[in-house]
Design a protein that fits this description.
Blueprint (H helix, E strand, L loop, with lengths): L18 E9 L2 H11 L6 H16 L9 E7 L1 H6 L9 H5 L1 H8 L3 E4 L2 E4 L3 H4 L4 E7 L2 H14 L9 E10 L62 E10 L1 H10 L9 H13 L17 H5 L26 H5 L3 H4 L13 E2 L2 E3 L5 H6 L7 E8 L6 H9 L9 E2 L2 E2 L24 E3 L9 E3 L6 E11 L2 H7 L3
Antiparallel strand pairs: 1-5, 1-6, 2-5, 3-4, 7-10, 7-15, 8-10, 9-10, 11-12, 13-14
The structure holds delta-meso nitroheme (N7H).
């Protein structure tokens, strides 16, 4: 069985959160840092701790107590530069991690500028600097989180003459208010579909498609790179952080200006349908593969049914009737597009566990009126996997950014043949063009799989920073990162 006391809590379980602060730091005094770590480690929330917290939350609800359970949970994660700074030279056997996200940004398709061979992504200044690690604190309210973060900063002497770390920057995420607290800023319910991890998730929901723990945790069963990795990497996981801004009024304007025209649909319903076909789910969370033309809030709220689908029409070449190939959830988790008989490609190694949180204010009436973003908002995207190369990096580069995917994707029965007359196009949410050209998607109109719709020049999601990290096990932290 997995040692849940050894695994950081955000990886398996997820830190319970209404708000979360990511504190990015550099190590400035290695010996002092390792000494401070001994005092810091007991603060870390493990996956076993998360199970207890969840029980406390359940009990609180059961007793109908008012408000939220006061809570502040801490995890820590290190970049490749951070490991180097600490004198940890082992190769963790992941190219993207070793390269670092700033240098990986060109391949990811992030906007930026080129000077000779050197590419600089158009990111916020702090993310262009070296970052050694991130400490993050999640909790029920700003008070709980700030108090905990102050305790942690005190341990490392932040801001004093005996500091062992210095702040590079910090960012705060907050779930949205009221009814939309589980929805991201475009308005869609999020956090529905994550893989179940064998030996951890006891009762997987339909559609969670359990995977072996080694696809998330290093050196566990299923980790194809296990042999190449040092012993201390066991039960750690790579954390991908992306600072993603969302252009919400612009997104809304695009939907309003391009309603899908179908008999019986009002203009407004046509716009909602376009949004649903871009994401693959209605704002309620109901999957369009099950309910293609009309939202179904009851289905959306039913955890036994809202993720229970495969892309049933996938083997009918080019048929995008129920869900376009380019829909965000189909691009990022193609389900049986690659796996259904007679095809068989193992996509378990592409699964990621998503743990993001929203940031920024609600759209103001001024922004709505101007159809233009004036205030930064979006998603602090976080995901875990036992390989960034096979997980986030691959999904972004080879699926979301690849207009042809799934054509030519390799399966045991050979590459997937062209879909009759259909080029799926980009993932309209996160697909970035690399270099010039226009971004198109097809299949937005259920009646005509081949018509293309051209996306605006201004992407709806704009990356403004990020880094790749490794979240070590508690044992590793005690033996390699502390004295
Ligand atoms: Fe995505 N969105 O609002 O459109 N995502 N995502 N994502 N995403 C998902 O099924 C969104 C991003 C995945 O298992 C839902 O839980 C936004 C990145 C994967 O069926 C919604 C942003 C990457 C899934 C969104 C964003 C992914 C998924 C449906 C950026 C990886 C699960 C809710 C601002 C490279 C697919 C759900 C499955 C679901 C949105 C980013 C990947 C609504 C706004 C960068 C694997």
């Amino acid at each position: 069985p997995l040692d849940l006391n050894n695994i950081q809590g955000d990886i398996l379980g997820g830190l319970p959160k209404r708000t979360e602060t990511y504190f990015f730091f550099d190590v400035t005094n290695v010996d002092q840092f390792k000494a401070n770590m001994a005092h810091f480690i007991p603060h870390i929330k493990t996956s076993a701790g998360i199970i207890k917290d969840r029980e406390a939350i359940k009990e609180h609800k059961r007793q109908k107590k008012p408000g939220l359970v006061p809570m502040a949970a801490v995890n820590v994660s290190f970049s490749h530069l951070g490991l180097q700074k600490l004198g940890i030279t082992d190769d963790l056997s992941d190219n993207a991690f070793t390269t670092g996200q700033r240098k990986d940004a060109e391949i990811l398709g992030d906007p930026g500028s080129k000077n000779g061979d050197a590419f600089t992504p158009a990111w916020e200044a702090p993310f262009l600097k070296d970052i050694h690690g991130v400490i993050f604190v999640a909790g029920d309210c700003h008070g709980s989180v700030n108090k905990k973060l102050d305790e942690i900063k005190h341990i490392f002497g932040v801001g004093t003459s005996h500091a062992s770390i210095s702040e590079v920057t910090h960012v705060r995420g907050d779930v949205r208010p009221g009814d939309v607290h589980a929805h991201e800023h475009f308005g869609f319910l999020d956090g529905i579909s994550n893989p179940a991890v064998e030996q951890f998730d006891q009762n997987p929901l339909p559609g969670q498609d359990p995977i072996r723990p080694g696809f998330i945790l290093a050196k566990e069963n299923g980790d194809s790179r296990a042999a190449a990795r040092p012993d201390w990497a066991k039960d750690g996981s790579f954390l991908t952080f992306r600072y993603l801004f969302q252009m919400v009024p612009e997104f809304d304007d695009f939907l309003e200006s391009n309603p899908i025209v179908l008999p019986g649909l009002s203009r407004k319903e046509g716009s909602e349908l376009l949004g649903a076909r871009i994401v693959g789910r209605w704002k309620s969370g109901a999957p369009i593969e099950i309910t293609p033309l009309k939202d179904d809030p009851k289905l959306a709220a039913d955890a036994q049914r809202n993720n229970k689908f495969d892309f049933g029409d996938s083997l009918v070449r080019g048929d995008q009737t129920k869900c376009p190939f380019a829909a965000h959830i189909r691009k990022t988790y193609p389900r049986n597009d690659l796996e259904g008989p007679p095809l068989k490609a193992d996509i378990d190694n592409r699964r990621i566990i998503r743990r993001g949180i929203q940031f920024g204010p609600e759209v103001t009436s001024q922004e709505h009126h101007d159809k233009k973003t004036h205030h930064g908002r979006g998603l602090l995207f976080v995901c875990y996997s036992s390989s960034i190369d096979d997980g986030f990096h691959f999904i972004q580069e080879s699926w979301a950014n690849a207009p042809n995917f799934p054509v030519n994707a390799v399966t045991s029965a050979g590459p997937i043949p062209p879909l009759d007359g259909v080029v799926p196009g980009f993932d309209a949410i996160i697909g970035q063009k690399v270099g010039g050209g226009i971004r198109q998607i097809s299949g937005t109109n259920p009646n005509d799989p081949t018509t293309n719709i051209t996306l605006p020049d201004q992407d709806f999601v704009v990356p403004r920073g990020g880094e790749y990290f490794f979240s070590p096990s508690i044992t590793a932290l005690k033996t390699k990162f502390a004295i």
